[in-house]
Input
Amino acid sequence: MTGKPPVRSSVRNAKLAALPVAYAGRQAAGVGKRVLGRSSSEINRDIQLRTAQHIFEVLGELKGCAAKLGQLLAIYGLALPREVAEPYTAALGQLQDSAPAMLPAMVHAAMSESLGSRWREQFREFDDRRAAAASIGQVHRAVWHDGRRVAVKIMYPGARSAIEGDLLQLRRISVLATVFLAGADVKGVTEAICDGVRAELDYAAEAEHQRAFAAAYAGDPDFCVPDVVAQHGDVLITEWLDGTPLTRVLAGGSQDERDRLGMLMLRFVLSGWAREGLLYADPHPGNFRVLPDGRLGIVDFGACCPWPPAGFDQLALDYCTAIFKGGPRDLELAARRHGFVESSRVFDIDALFKMVMSASEPFRRSSYRLTTPWLRTQVLRTTRLDLSNVTRQLTMPAYFTPFARSALTLIGTLSQLETEGPYRDEIVRWLPMLGQAIEATPAKSAPIDLAGMRERRAAATVRRIG
Output
Protein backbone atom coordinates (compact mmCIF):
# COMPACT_ATOMS: atom_id res chain seq x y z
CA MET A 1 0.00 0.00 0.00
CA THR A 2 1.29 3.47 -0.84
CA GLY A 3 0.10 7.00 -0.19
CA LYS A 4 -0.32 9.18 2.82
CA PRO A 5 0.27 7.57 6.23
CA PRO A 6 -2.83 7.14 8.43
CA VAL A 7 -3.06 10.39 10.35
CA ARG A 8 -6.80 11.16 10.16
CA SER A 9 -7.52 12.36 13.67
CA SER A 10 -11.25 11.52 13.57
CA VAL A 11 -10.58 7.83 12.90
CA ARG A 12 -7.71 7.56 15.38
CA ASN A 13 -9.55 9.42 18.12
CA ALA A 14 -12.71 7.34 17.66
CA LYS A 15 -10.79 4.09 18.16
CA LEU A 16 -8.98 5.32 21.24
CA ALA A 17 -12.07 6.98 22.69
CA ALA A 18 -13.93 3.68 22.43
CA LEU A 19 -11.65 2.10 25.04
CA PRO A 20 -12.97 3.79 28.22
CA VAL A 21 -16.55 3.54 26.94
CA ALA A 22 -16.18 -0.22 26.49
CA TYR A 23 -14.49 -0.47 29.90
CA ALA A 24 -17.42 1.31 31.57
CA GLY A 25 -19.84 -0.97 29.74
CA ARG A 26 -18.07 -4.08 31.01
CA GLN A 27 -18.17 -2.76 34.57
CA ALA A 28 -21.91 -2.07 34.27
CA ALA A 29 -22.50 -5.55 32.89
CA GLY A 30 -20.53 -6.96 35.81
CA VAL A 31 -23.11 -5.61 38.24
CA GLY A 32 -25.78 -7.72 36.57
CA LYS A 33 -23.58 -10.81 36.65
CA ARG A 34 -23.06 -10.39 40.39
CA VAL A 35 -26.81 -10.38 40.85
CA LEU A 36 -26.90 -13.70 38.98
CA GLY A 37 -24.45 -15.21 41.44
CA ARG A 38 -20.98 -14.97 39.82
CA SER A 39 -18.18 -14.10 42.23
CA SER A 40 -16.64 -10.63 42.22
CA SER A 41 -13.13 -11.99 41.62
CA GLU A 42 -14.28 -14.00 38.60
CA ILE A 43 -16.13 -11.01 37.14
CA ASN A 44 -13.21 -8.62 37.76
CA ARG A 45 -10.79 -10.97 36.07
CA ASP A 46 -13.08 -11.29 33.06
CA ILE A 47 -13.39 -7.49 32.81
CA GLN A 48 -9.63 -7.04 33.07
CA LEU A 49 -8.82 -9.66 30.46
CA ARG A 50 -11.33 -8.27 28.00
CA THR A 51 -10.11 -4.72 28.58
CA ALA A 52 -6.49 -5.77 28.10
CA GLN A 53 -7.39 -7.50 24.85
CA HIS A 54 -9.24 -4.41 23.61
CA ILE A 55 -6.31 -2.13 24.52
CA PHE A 56 -3.86 -4.36 22.67
CA GLU A 57 -6.03 -4.72 19.58
CA VAL A 58 -6.66 -0.98 19.21
CA LEU A 59 -3.04 0.01 19.80
CA GLY A 60 -1.97 -2.68 17.37
CA GLU A 61 -4.11 -1.18 14.60
CA LEU A 62 -2.86 2.39 15.00
CA LYS A 63 0.45 3.99 14.05
CA GLY A 64 2.57 6.81 15.50
CA CYS A 65 2.22 7.33 19.23
CA ALA A 66 -0.23 4.45 19.61
CA ALA A 67 2.22 2.05 17.98
CA LYS A 68 4.94 3.13 20.40
CA LEU A 69 2.62 2.65 23.35
CA GLY A 70 1.77 -0.76 21.99
CA GLN A 71 5.46 -1.65 21.94
CA LEU A 72 5.83 -0.50 25.54
CA LEU A 73 2.91 -2.74 26.53
CA ALA A 74 4.20 -5.72 24.56
CA ILE A 75 5.89 -7.26 27.59
CA TYR A 76 2.51 -7.54 29.31
CA GLY A 77 1.35 -9.81 26.51
CA LEU A 78 3.41 -12.55 28.15
CA ALA A 79 1.09 -12.45 31.15
CA LEU A 80 -2.10 -12.97 29.17
CA PRO A 81 -3.73 -16.20 28.02
CA ARG A 82 -2.59 -17.17 24.52
CA GLU A 83 -6.00 -16.58 22.97
CA VAL A 84 -5.88 -12.98 24.26
CA ALA A 85 -2.23 -12.21 23.49
CA GLU A 86 -1.95 -13.74 20.01
CA PRO A 87 -4.16 -11.24 18.12
CA TYR A 88 -2.26 -8.34 19.69
CA THR A 89 1.15 -9.88 19.04
CA ALA A 90 0.24 -10.49 15.41
CA ALA A 91 -1.00 -6.93 14.94
CA LEU A 92 2.09 -5.48 16.61
CA GLY A 93 4.39 -7.61 14.47
CA GLN A 94 2.79 -6.23 11.32
CA LEU A 95 2.97 -2.56 12.29
CA GLN A 96 6.25 -1.72 10.62
CA ASP A 97 5.65 -3.75 7.46
CA SER A 98 2.14 -2.41 6.98
CA ALA A 99 2.98 1.28 7.39
CA PRO A 100 2.21 2.88 4.01
CA ALA A 101 5.16 4.40 2.21
CA MET A 102 5.21 8.04 1.19
CA LEU A 103 5.04 8.46 -2.57
CA PRO A 104 8.03 10.22 -4.19
CA ALA A 105 6.11 13.48 -4.58
CA MET A 106 5.38 13.55 -0.85
CA VAL A 107 8.99 12.70 -0.01
CA HIS A 108 10.24 15.53 -2.21
CA ALA A 109 7.78 17.96 -0.64
CA ALA A 110 8.90 16.98 2.86
CA MET A 111 12.57 17.39 1.89
CA SER A 112 11.87 20.82 0.39
CA GLU A 113 10.00 21.88 3.52
CA SER A 114 13.00 21.15 5.76
CA LEU A 115 16.04 21.63 3.47
CA GLY A 116 14.77 24.11 0.88
CA SER A 117 13.77 23.77 -2.75
CA ARG A 118 17.34 23.04 -3.90
CA TRP A 119 17.81 20.17 -1.48
CA ARG A 120 18.94 17.75 -4.19
CA GLU A 121 22.13 19.78 -4.69
CA GLN A 122 23.33 18.53 -1.29
CA PHE A 123 23.27 14.91 -2.49
CA ARG A 124 25.12 13.01 -5.17
CA GLU A 125 22.39 10.37 -5.09
CA PHE A 126 19.02 10.04 -3.38
CA ASP A 127 16.83 6.92 -3.50
CA ASP A 128 13.13 7.82 -3.59
CA ARG A 129 12.23 4.35 -2.30
CA ARG A 130 12.20 3.99 1.45
CA ALA A 131 14.82 1.69 2.94
CA ALA A 132 13.06 1.32 6.30
CA ALA A 133 9.88 2.44 8.05
CA ALA A 134 9.27 3.62 11.59
CA SER A 135 6.22 4.68 13.56
CA ILE A 136 6.59 8.39 12.78
CA GLY A 137 8.71 8.43 9.62
CA GLN A 138 10.79 6.56 7.12
CA VAL A 139 14.45 6.24 6.09
CA HIS A 140 15.99 6.64 2.62
CA ARG A 141 19.41 5.69 1.30
CA ALA A 142 21.46 8.51 -0.21
CA VAL A 143 24.98 9.69 -0.98
CA TRP A 144 25.99 13.05 0.54
CA HIS A 145 27.75 15.65 -1.56
CA ASP A 146 31.13 14.63 -0.10
CA GLY A 147 30.68 10.98 -1.09
CA ARG A 148 29.55 9.60 2.25
CA ARG A 149 26.71 7.09 2.21
CA VAL A 150 23.96 8.40 4.44
CA ALA A 151 20.59 7.51 5.96
CA VAL A 152 17.94 10.23 5.53
CA LYS A 153 15.20 10.04 8.16
CA ILE A 154 12.05 11.94 7.17
CA MET A 155 9.09 12.50 9.46
CA TYR A 156 5.67 11.72 8.00
CA PRO A 157 3.76 14.92 7.13
CA GLY A 158 1.02 15.25 9.72
CA ALA A 159 2.71 12.92 12.21
CA ARG A 160 3.17 15.67 14.79
CA SER A 161 -0.53 16.63 14.88
CA ALA A 162 -1.59 12.97 14.84
CA ILE A 163 0.59 12.19 17.85
CA GLU A 164 -0.67 15.21 19.76
CA GLY A 165 -4.17 13.85 19.19
CA ASP A 166 -3.06 10.45 20.46
CA LEU A 167 -1.57 12.01 23.59
CA LEU A 168 -4.83 13.81 24.30
CA GLN A 169 -6.70 10.52 24.05
CA LEU A 170 -4.05 8.77 26.14
CA ARG A 171 -4.76 11.15 28.99
CA ARG A 172 -8.44 10.33 28.69
CA ILE A 173 -7.94 6.56 28.76
CA SER A 174 -5.12 6.51 31.30
CA VAL A 175 -7.51 5.23 33.98
CA LEU A 176 -7.26 1.87 32.20
CA ALA A 177 -3.70 1.55 33.53
CA THR A 178 -5.30 0.34 36.75
CA VAL A 179 -6.00 -2.92 34.92
CA PHE A 180 -2.32 -3.67 35.58
CA LEU A 181 -1.22 -1.38 38.44
CA ALA A 182 -4.10 -0.24 40.57
CA GLY A 183 -1.98 1.88 42.90
CA ALA A 184 0.10 3.71 40.31
CA ASP A 185 0.38 7.48 40.01
CA VAL A 186 -1.53 7.29 36.74
CA LYS A 187 -1.57 11.01 36.02
CA GLY A 188 2.14 11.53 36.70
CA VAL A 189 3.26 8.46 34.77
CA THR A 190 0.94 9.34 31.87
CA GLU A 191 2.48 12.81 31.62
CA ALA A 192 5.97 11.29 31.72
CA ILE A 193 5.03 8.95 28.87
CA CYS A 194 3.60 11.89 26.91
CA ASP A 195 6.79 13.89 27.43
CA GLY A 196 8.88 10.94 26.24
CA VAL A 197 6.83 10.34 23.11
CA ARG A 198 6.75 14.06 22.27
CA ALA A 199 10.53 14.24 22.68
CA GLU A 200 10.92 11.71 19.86
CA LEU A 201 9.40 14.29 17.49
CA ASP A 202 12.33 16.63 18.13
CA TYR A 203 14.94 15.70 15.52
CA ALA A 204 17.24 18.51 16.70
CA ALA A 205 17.41 16.95 20.19
CA GLU A 206 17.85 13.49 18.66
CA ALA A 207 20.77 14.80 16.60
CA GLU A 208 22.42 16.23 19.72
CA HIS A 209 22.01 12.96 21.58
CA GLN A 210 23.47 11.00 18.69
CA ARG A 211 26.43 13.39 18.39
CA ALA A 212 27.14 12.92 22.09
CA PHE A 213 27.03 9.13 21.82
CA ALA A 214 29.07 9.11 18.59
CA ALA A 215 31.81 11.19 20.24
CA ALA A 216 31.79 9.05 23.39
CA TYR A 217 32.12 5.77 21.47
CA ALA A 218 34.42 6.90 18.67
CA GLY A 219 37.05 4.20 18.18
CA ASP A 220 35.39 1.85 20.66
CA PRO A 221 36.25 -1.81 19.95
CA ASP A 222 32.73 -2.98 20.78
CA PHE A 223 30.33 -0.28 19.56
CA CYS A 224 29.66 1.90 16.53
CA VAL A 225 27.40 4.96 16.59
CA PRO A 226 27.05 6.61 13.17
CA ASP A 227 27.92 10.31 13.01
CA VAL A 228 25.28 12.95 12.38
CA VAL A 229 25.83 14.60 8.98
CA ALA A 230 23.08 17.23 9.10
CA GLN A 231 19.73 18.02 10.67
CA HIS A 232 17.13 20.47 9.40
CA GLY A 233 13.54 20.60 10.62
CA ASP A 234 11.92 17.19 10.29
CA VAL A 235 14.84 15.63 8.40
CA LEU A 236 17.82 13.94 10.10
CA ILE A 237 20.80 12.79 8.04
CA THR A 238 23.32 10.37 9.52
CA GLU A 239 26.06 8.13 8.19
CA TRP A 240 24.72 4.86 6.78
CA LEU A 241 25.36 1.82 8.97
CA ASP A 242 25.80 -1.52 7.23
CA GLY A 243 25.17 -4.59 9.32
CA THR A 244 22.92 -7.52 10.13
CA PRO A 245 19.77 -6.54 12.06
CA LEU A 246 19.70 -8.01 15.54
CA THR A 247 16.27 -9.42 14.68
CA ARG A 248 18.03 -11.94 12.42
CA VAL A 249 20.27 -13.03 15.28
CA LEU A 250 17.11 -13.58 17.32
CA ALA A 251 15.79 -15.82 14.55
CA GLY A 252 18.88 -17.94 13.94
CA GLY A 253 22.09 -16.79 15.63
CA SER A 254 24.38 -19.18 17.53
CA GLN A 255 24.20 -19.18 21.30
CA ASP A 256 27.73 -17.78 21.58
CA GLU A 257 26.71 -14.87 19.38
CA ARG A 258 23.51 -14.34 21.36
CA ASP A 259 25.50 -14.27 24.60
CA ARG A 260 28.05 -11.81 23.22
CA LEU A 261 25.53 -9.43 21.67
CA GLY A 262 23.20 -9.50 24.66
CA MET A 263 26.01 -8.56 27.02
CA LEU A 264 27.08 -5.80 24.63
CA MET A 265 23.56 -4.37 24.68
CA LEU A 266 23.63 -4.32 28.48
CA ARG A 267 27.08 -2.72 28.45
CA PHE A 268 25.97 -0.02 26.03
CA VAL A 269 22.97 1.01 28.12
CA LEU A 270 24.92 0.99 31.40
CA SER A 271 28.01 2.72 30.06
CA GLY A 272 25.93 5.43 28.36
CA TRP A 273 24.68 6.92 31.59
CA ALA A 274 27.88 6.16 33.50
CA ARG A 275 30.11 7.87 30.88
CA GLU A 276 27.82 10.47 29.31
CA GLY A 277 24.94 10.95 31.72
CA LEU A 278 22.49 9.84 29.01
CA LEU A 279 19.98 7.01 29.11
CA TYR A 280 19.35 5.06 25.91
CA ALA A 281 15.69 4.36 26.58
CA ASP A 282 14.73 2.28 23.54
CA PRO A 283 17.01 -0.81 23.41
CA HIS A 284 14.76 -3.03 21.29
CA PRO A 285 16.22 -5.34 18.60
CA GLY A 286 15.24 -3.09 15.68
CA ASN A 287 17.68 -0.41 16.85
CA PHE A 288 20.81 -2.60 16.73
CA ARG A 289 22.99 -3.92 13.90
CA VAL A 290 25.80 -6.48 13.96
CA LEU A 291 28.66 -5.06 11.90
CA PRO A 292 30.91 -7.29 9.75
CA ASP A 293 33.79 -6.79 12.22
CA GLY A 294 31.58 -7.96 15.12
CA ARG A 295 30.90 -4.57 16.69
CA LEU A 296 27.39 -3.65 17.77
CA GLY A 297 25.96 -0.74 15.80
CA ILE A 298 23.26 1.44 17.35
CA VAL A 299 20.70 3.65 15.61
CA ASP A 300 17.71 5.81 16.62
CA PHE A 301 18.53 8.14 19.50
CA GLY A 302 15.14 9.82 19.76
CA ALA A 303 14.30 8.27 23.13
CA CYS A 304 17.42 9.40 25.00
CA CYS A 305 17.28 11.58 28.09
CA PRO A 306 19.66 12.87 30.79
CA TRP A 307 20.25 10.22 33.47
CA PRO A 308 20.51 9.60 36.35
CA PRO A 309 18.37 12.21 38.13
CA ALA A 310 19.27 13.40 41.61
CA GLY A 311 18.69 10.68 44.15
CA PHE A 312 18.74 7.71 41.77
CA ASP A 313 22.11 6.43 42.96
CA GLN A 314 20.87 6.39 46.55
CA LEU A 315 17.66 4.65 45.44
CA ALA A 316 19.65 1.91 43.70
CA LEU A 317 21.96 1.50 46.68
CA ASP A 318 19.09 1.32 49.20
CA TYR A 319 17.22 -1.26 47.15
CA CYS A 320 20.28 -3.42 46.50
CA THR A 321 21.29 -3.31 50.16
CA ALA A 322 17.78 -4.35 51.21
CA ILE A 323 17.56 -7.17 48.64
CA PHE A 324 21.06 -8.63 48.90
CA LYS A 325 22.01 -7.91 52.53
CA GLY A 326 18.77 -7.09 54.32
CA GLY A 327 15.22 -8.37 54.61
CA PRO A 328 11.55 -7.44 54.15
CA ARG A 329 11.67 -4.56 56.64
CA ASP A 330 14.65 -2.97 54.85
CA LEU A 331 12.83 -3.28 51.52
CA GLU A 332 9.73 -1.66 52.99
CA LEU A 333 11.77 1.29 54.25
CA ALA A 334 13.42 1.72 50.83
CA ALA A 335 10.09 1.49 48.99
CA ARG A 336 8.49 4.13 51.20
CA ARG A 337 11.56 6.38 51.25
CA HIS A 338 11.75 6.56 47.46
CA GLY A 339 8.05 6.89 46.67
CA PHE A 340 7.14 3.38 45.45
CA VAL A 341 4.51 3.04 48.18
CA GLU A 342 2.25 5.78 49.48
CA SER A 343 3.25 6.71 53.02
CA SER A 344 -0.08 5.69 54.56
CA ARG A 345 -0.72 2.55 52.50
CA VAL A 346 -0.58 -0.85 54.16
CA PHE A 347 0.85 -3.52 51.87
CA ASP A 348 2.13 -7.10 51.97
CA ILE A 349 5.88 -6.55 52.33
CA ASP A 350 6.60 -10.29 52.66
CA ALA A 351 4.93 -10.95 49.30
CA LEU A 352 6.87 -8.09 47.71
CA PHE A 353 10.17 -9.30 49.16
CA LYS A 354 9.53 -12.80 47.83
CA MET A 355 8.74 -11.40 44.39
CA VAL A 356 11.84 -9.21 44.31
CA MET A 357 14.08 -12.03 45.49
CA SER A 358 12.96 -14.14 42.54
CA ALA A 359 13.46 -11.32 40.03
CA SER A 360 16.95 -10.58 41.39
CA GLU A 361 18.26 -14.13 40.87
CA PRO A 362 20.34 -13.15 37.76
CA PHE A 363 22.37 -10.79 39.96
CA ARG A 364 23.04 -13.36 42.70
CA ARG A 365 25.32 -15.41 40.46
CA SER A 366 28.49 -14.63 38.58
CA SER A 367 26.76 -15.84 35.40
CA TYR A 368 23.10 -16.39 34.56
CA ARG A 369 21.00 -17.20 31.48
CA LEU A 370 17.89 -15.12 30.93
CA THR A 371 15.12 -16.92 29.04
CA THR A 372 11.61 -16.20 27.87
CA PRO A 373 10.14 -18.70 30.40
CA TRP A 374 12.02 -16.89 33.20
CA LEU A 375 10.69 -13.55 32.00
CA ARG A 376 7.19 -14.91 31.64
CA THR A 377 7.30 -16.12 35.24
CA GLN A 378 8.27 -12.64 36.45
CA VAL A 379 5.64 -10.90 34.35
CA LEU A 380 2.92 -13.30 35.41
CA ARG A 381 3.84 -12.75 39.04
CA THR A 382 3.85 -8.94 38.82
CA THR A 383 0.84 -8.47 36.52
CA ARG A 384 -1.40 -11.21 37.92
CA LEU A 385 -4.95 -9.92 37.54
CA ASP A 386 -6.30 -10.43 41.04
CA LEU A 387 -6.79 -8.07 43.95
CA SER A 388 -4.30 -9.84 46.23
CA ASN A 389 -1.34 -9.12 43.94
CA VAL A 390 1.01 -6.87 45.95
CA THR A 391 2.08 -4.89 42.86
CA ARG A 392 -1.44 -3.46 42.74
CA GLN A 393 -0.65 -1.79 46.08
CA LEU A 394 2.47 -0.06 44.72
CA THR A 395 3.06 3.04 42.67
CA MET A 396 5.94 4.43 40.61
CA PRO A 397 7.41 7.94 40.67
CA ALA A 398 6.89 9.63 37.31
CA TYR A 399 10.62 10.41 36.88
CA PHE A 400 11.30 6.66 36.88
CA THR A 401 9.31 6.10 33.66
CA PRO A 402 12.20 6.37 31.12
CA PHE A 403 14.33 3.99 33.17
CA ALA A 404 11.45 1.52 33.47
CA ARG A 405 10.95 1.64 29.70
CA SER A 406 14.64 1.06 29.04
CA ALA A 407 15.02 -1.72 31.61
CA LEU A 408 11.90 -3.63 30.58
CA THR A 409 12.74 -3.41 26.88
CA LEU A 410 16.33 -4.51 27.48
CA ILE A 411 15.38 -7.42 29.74
CA GLY A 412 12.79 -8.53 27.20
CA THR A 413 15.38 -8.54 24.41
CA LEU A 414 18.00 -10.35 26.50
CA SER A 415 15.42 -12.98 27.41
CA GLN A 416 14.53 -13.50 23.74
CA LEU A 417 18.24 -13.87 22.96
CA GLU A 418 18.55 -16.23 25.96
CA THR A 419 21.74 -14.39 26.84
CA GLU A 420 23.99 -15.93 29.46
CA GLY A 421 26.57 -13.69 31.06
CA PRO A 422 27.93 -11.91 34.14
CA TYR A 423 25.08 -9.48 34.75
CA ARG A 424 26.19 -8.73 38.29
CA ASP A 425 29.79 -7.96 37.30
CA GLU A 426 28.69 -5.77 34.39
CA ILE A 427 26.44 -3.69 36.62
CA VAL A 428 29.13 -3.25 39.27
CA ARG A 429 31.66 -2.28 36.60
CA TRP A 430 29.57 0.77 35.63
CA LEU A 431 27.89 1.41 38.98
CA PRO A 432 30.71 0.65 41.43
CA MET A 433 28.82 2.10 44.41
CA LEU A 434 26.61 -1.02 44.25
CA GLY A 435 29.53 -3.39 44.51
CA GLN A 436 29.52 -3.90 48.26
CA ALA A 437 25.81 -4.77 48.28
CA ILE A 438 25.57 -6.94 45.17
CA GLU A 439 28.89 -8.75 45.48
CA ALA A 440 27.97 -10.03 48.94
CA THR A 441 26.38 -13.05 47.19
CA PRO A 442 28.67 -16.06 46.60
CA ALA A 443 29.67 -16.72 42.99
CA LYS A 444 28.39 -19.95 41.40
CA SER A 445 29.91 -19.94 37.89
CA ALA A 446 32.49 -18.19 35.72
CA PRO A 447 31.66 -14.95 33.85
CA ILE A 448 31.60 -14.70 30.08
CA ASP A 449 34.79 -13.38 28.39
CA LEU A 450 33.61 -10.76 25.89
CA ALA A 451 37.11 -9.80 24.75
CA GLY A 452 38.03 -13.44 24.14
CA MET A 453 34.84 -14.02 22.18
CA ARG A 454 35.61 -10.98 20.01
CA GLU A 455 39.10 -12.32 19.27
CA ARG A 456 37.76 -15.77 18.39
CA ARG A 457 35.18 -14.24 16.07
CA ALA A 458 37.87 -12.20 14.27
CA ALA A 459 40.07 -15.30 13.90
CA ALA A 460 37.15 -17.29 12.47
CA THR A 461 36.49 -14.52 9.94
CA VAL A 462 40.12 -14.59 8.81
CA ARG A 463 39.96 -18.37 8.36
CA ARG A 464 36.81 -18.09 6.24
CA ILE A 465 38.38 -15.44 4.00
CA GLY A 466 41.57 -17.47 3.71
Notes: DSSP finds 18 helices and 13 strands in the chain. The mean pLDDT is 79.
